[in-house]
Design brief:
Blueprint: H1 3-10, H2 14-44, H3 47-70, H4 79-110, H5 115-145
């Protein structure tokens, strides 16, 4: 059986569909964060500050898109069950990413790399750090944060259009 004939069947599985949507949201968040990180670094010449700003800015669309589109949660967010845990996970990612960015910046300065190469290295370091945390974050979000009983009436994704 060809992959093209199996793909629609695979996407009917709620867990896999969520993983695909989560991946798409991650791609959007990565683009936003990377642009913010590059821009902030070129404006401030500070890798750590650019990492902090990028994570803070990228977390907002990540939270909203994941909550509303990937996990189909509507209505107001719950502060202690959704918002705080999501931001704590983002903060853990921020700390890990910032440590990686700081190490990369120190390494680049020690070798006299130019601003463009340093900026590229910092973005690569940030991406690598968040890439390592990506799967764990999906599992936590899926099983603890936005968990929904798939056997409940109307809980299945009936359409793939984001609801805002």
């Amino acid at each position: 059986m060809e992959a093209t004939t199996r793909l629609p069947g695979l996407l009917q599985k709620p867990g896999l569909r969520k993983l695909v949507k989560y991946s798409m949201v991650s791609a959007i968040s990565i683009v936003v964060s990377q642009i913010v990180q590059l821009t902030t670094f070129f404006l401030t010449h500070n890798g750590v500050l650019s990492s902090i700003v990028a994570v803070a800015v990228g977390t907002v669309p990540s939270y909203e898109l994941n909550r509303r589109w990937t996990w189909r949660k509507n209505g107001p967010s719950h502060l202690w069950r959704e918002i705080v845990p999501f931001w704590v996970m983002s903060f853990v990612g921020l700390v890990f990413s910032t440590v990686c960015v700081y190490a990369a910046e120190q390494w680049a300065e020690g070798r006299g790399l130019g601003k463009a190469r340093t900026a590229f290295l910092l973005n690569l370091s940030s991406l690598a750090a968040f890439g390592l945390l990506w799967i764990g974050k999906f599992l936590i979000i899926n099983h603890l944060l936005f968990h929904r009983d798939h056997h409940a009436v109307g809980s299945d994704d009936e359409d793939d259009i984001p609801v805002f």
